[in-house]
Write a structure and sequence with these properties.
With about 475 residues, the protein is of the alpha/beta class. It is about 35% helix and about 20% strand. It has 13 helices and 19 strands. It has helices at about 10-25, 40-55, 80-100, 115-125, 140-150, 195-200, 205-220, 240-250, 270-275, 295-300, 305-320, 335-350, 375-400, and strands at about 30-35, 60, 65-75, 105-110, 130, 155, 175-180, 180-185, 200-205, 225, 255-260, 285, 325-330, 355-360, 405-415, 420-425, 430-435, 445-450, 455-460. The structure holds S-adenosyl-L-homocysteine, iron/sulfur cluster and FE3-S4 cluster. The site of iron/sulfur cluster (SF4) has 10 residues, from α6. The site of iron/sulfur cluster has 10 residues, from α6.
Length: about 475
């Protein structure tokens, strides 16, 4: 827990617990709701926030109306993400007016930027505190400062803070678990805000990671995703390939995933480890961003198409059938029609199973925001439509190839639309819907695929679950 805070009131954790009890005695809500707006790292941070809040006496709830503490875990990757968050925060003004003791904290990447902190200070007076990604562990201090000193606090950590072990995440995704292995990013892709809001790369010690993985496996987690902005530049006391090999050698019925990888850092050792270990899921998310070498250079990605193609070839050779997914940015400054056709050409040639595509969004303080040749919104939209149409065709064709086949699926949860159905994923990460009793959640099942479209597959278990 929090040690050595400079401004926190004495015994802050005990006093917060008493405060929560007093709210409960007064019939006021004492839940904690964490709303998550960002990437997987942000989701993993939300689990840590939830873990921290519950040690302070708040009980997790998904309903903000039942909360005495609302944490909004924000993302700054695109303008749209920030606008969405600001409107959600705006909506909590009413709750605060009804319940003055309700605590509202803004966490994550948005309040790592000074202009956003100024905005929170001025325009959102009911926000009690903010914690940037490196200050999450100061939650008790922030709450105590508000409750017992009557002050708001806006914490921004150093760019290179030491890793804090010992914040137990409260995982709530059934058999799926995030496992952070590193934090921050050193790459400074010219469009990206992440290195500015998450600081430099820091890797956890491999022994801490292995211990956490063992605990997760023993606790019944069946699908573990190693997380970092750039996992394949992991540099603890070993490199990423060695870490992955150690984790894949742990006993138990589980599979391992990792994200995100940077194409420039995919080593032959890593490809070898993926080829040799069945416990590593046959899935690789390898953001391409653009199919044009000129655009890749302007993005400061530090690989070209030739290198990328070569990596794809090696991965497919090492692990036949591996599911490849990617990210593409449409309308990067200076992207011409010819550049964009190279991206389409790359998609046709590589045939990713799935592509997450984003309209380029200028981010304050990043080099690309100042580049000449910003692309018109209309052209961006038109290119995006063409990309989506092409990728949907490719993904539907790939989906058809699964019809009639039997795939191994981890049953993850009861379907949101039909309680007789479960949803799960294949090792490749493909979504599968199938009829099964709720008791099968957390089990690996063989499912025969009857129908597949670009986004999901539908099938029936090949055997009764548990047999
Ligand atoms: N570290 C990961 C993920 C970064 S964020 C990586 O390197 O791939 C996830 C995706 O958001 C990126 O891959 C990129 O495609 C997209 N993205 C990042 N900044 C963006 C911006 N300014 N505008 C549009 N998309 C962006
Ligand atoms: Fe952003 Fe590039 Fe770092 Fe990914 S590798 S987080 S895209 S700067
Ligand atoms: Fe967003 Fe921060 Fe993740 S900016 S994408 S939540 S690292």
């Amino acid at each position: 827990m929090e040690n050595g805070s400079r401004t926190a009131p004495e015994n802050v954790e005990e006093r917060i617990k008493e405060y929560v009890l007093s709210r409960s005695a007064a019939g006021l809500p004492t839940g904690v709701t964490v709303l998550t707006f960002g990437c997987q790292q942000n989701e993993a941070d939300s689990e840590k926030l939830l873990g921290l809040a519950s040690t302070l006496g708040f009980s997790p709830t998904d309903d903000p109306e039942e909360a005495g503490l609302i944490l909004v875990n924000t993302c700054a990757i695109r303008e749209h993400a920030e606008q969405k968050v600001l409107s959600v925060i705006g909506g909590f003004g009413r709750r605060k007016a009804e319940d003055r003791g309700l605590l509202i904290g803004v966490c994550g990447c948005m309040p790592a930027q000074s202009h956003r902190i100024e905005q929170l200070k001025k325009s959102y007076p009911y926000v009690d505190f903010s914690l940037d990604p490196s200050s999450l562990s100061r939650m008790a201090e922030a709450i105590g400062t508000r409750l017992f000193l009557g002050k708001r606090s806006f914490f921004v950590g150093e760019a290179n803070p030491p890793i804090r072990e010992g914040i137990a995440p409260l995982r709530r995704r059934g058999p799926l678990g995030w496992l952070s292995i590193m934090y921050g990013c050193n790459n400074f892709c010219s469009y990206c805000i992440v290195p500015y809001v998450r600081g430099r790369e820091r890797s956890r010690a491999s022994a801490d990671i292995v211990r956490e993985a063992e605990e997760m496996i023993a606790a019944g987690y069946r699908d573990i995703t190693l997380l970092g902005q750039n996992v394949n530049s992991y540099r603890g006391d070993c490199d990423f390939a060695a870490l992955l090999a150690r984790l894949a050698a742990l006993p138990g019925d589980f599979r391992l995933r990792f994200m995100t990888s940077h194409p420039k850092d995919v080593s032959d050792d890593l490809v070898g480890v993926i080829g040799e270990n069945e416990k590593i899921a046959p899935a690789f998310h390898l953001p391409l961003q653009s199919g044009s070498d000129a655009v890749l250079r302007a993005m400061n990605r530090r690989y070209d198409m030739q290198r990328y193609r070569e990596t794809v070839r090696k991965l497919r050779e090492a692990r036949p059938g591996i599911v490849l997914t990617s990210d593409i940015i449409v309308g990067f400054p200076g992207e011409t029609e010819a550049d964009f056709s190279e991206t389409l050409r790359a998609l046709r040639e590589i045939r990713f199973d799935m592509v997450y595509s984003f309209l380029y969004s200028p981010r304050r303080g990043t080099p690309a925001a100042g580049y000449e040749g910003q692309v018109d919104a209309e052209i961006k939209g038109e290119r995006m439509r063409r990309l989506l149409a092409l990728q949907t065709d490719i993904a539907s064709e790939i989906g058809k190839g699964y019809e009639g086949k039997t795939v191994r699926v981890l049953a993850e949860e009861i379907s949101k639309t039909d309680p007789a159905m479960l949803t799960g994923r294949t090792g490749g990460g493909k979504l599968v819907h199938f009829p099964s009793p709720a008791s099968a959640v957390g089990e690996f099942l063989d499912v025969r695929i009857e129908r597949a479209d670009a986004y999901a597959m539908y099938g029936v278990p090949a055997r009764e679950p548990g047999k």
